[in-house]
Amino acid sequence: MQLLIVEDSAADATLLLAELERKGIAPAYRRVESKPDFLAALKHSAWDAVISDYVLPQFSGPEALRLLRQQGLDTPFIMVSGIYGEEAAVAMMKAGANDYLMKGNLARLSPTLEREVEAARDRHRRKRAEGAMQFLAAIIESSVDAIYGKNLDSVIVSWNPAAERLFGYSAEEIIGRSTGLLFPQHRREEMLEILAGVRRGDIVGVQETERLHKSGRIIPVSVTVSPIKNGAGEIIGASSIARDISRQKQAEFERQQLIQSLMNASKQVRTLTGLLPICATCKRIRDDKGYWQQVETYLAKHSEITFSHSICPACAEDYERQFEFKGP
Known about the structure:
With 328 residues, this protein is α/β, with parallel strands linked by helices. Helices cover 44% and strands 21% of the residues. Strand 4, helix 4 and strand 5 (99-102) form a beta-alpha-beta unit.
């Protein structure tokens, strides 16, 4: 125990420590008797409790209490006085002291100190736990993933904003209802398997599955379900984290479509690399069904070629010769 003693009398401080040691308490301590020393002690060390005299030549118990509380510290403050009585005790208690004892009767010092130190530690633990819970709640509220809790009967007990966006149900609509609302009919067996895993204490992860939107639309999701335990280590429910994987599924579909298109194109290209029967006179091509087609018709059907028609110089010259004047 770390004890700060505000006392101008070394002898009185020794009596306090002797009483504590007699009850089995041997604290590490520091004695101060002025305001600067008191503030320095608060700044450089964490104290489990402060025991203060009421009046000192350069300082006072009430001022020490005021300074302590101004620092925002919940450190137990016990006033031990040899002069002042009930009226001063009431005033000090109203000012925030944890207890007021007379120097002539220190029998209560040890139990009072132990009680107030333990109470302060409980308050600190509770405050820390509340802070952690608030921080965790903030994380859940701001998460982009749907996070919801359920008891062992699969009744939903918590529902974050992302769950509202993913499934379409508001918290008011869904809390108190079964998680079965979220499972398509063909996924009900999965629901039972997850519940069995939770009861065993397993963390259940499903990379790709499906859930139901309020509208009846099926949503592709990945899901992680973890058991929730109470302070005794007993499983009392589970938390589920669901992530929408619609975009990933659409991207995968488009990738498969592209692959299929490329494979089809590759097959078409390969059909043009083989031996093609072509008429030596009319230049028609015979297809795989035995029909004869114009070359441009066949190539246009089996490739990305687009034909435009023109006349080459040699053909143009032959054509013009047909109209040349022939003499007698």
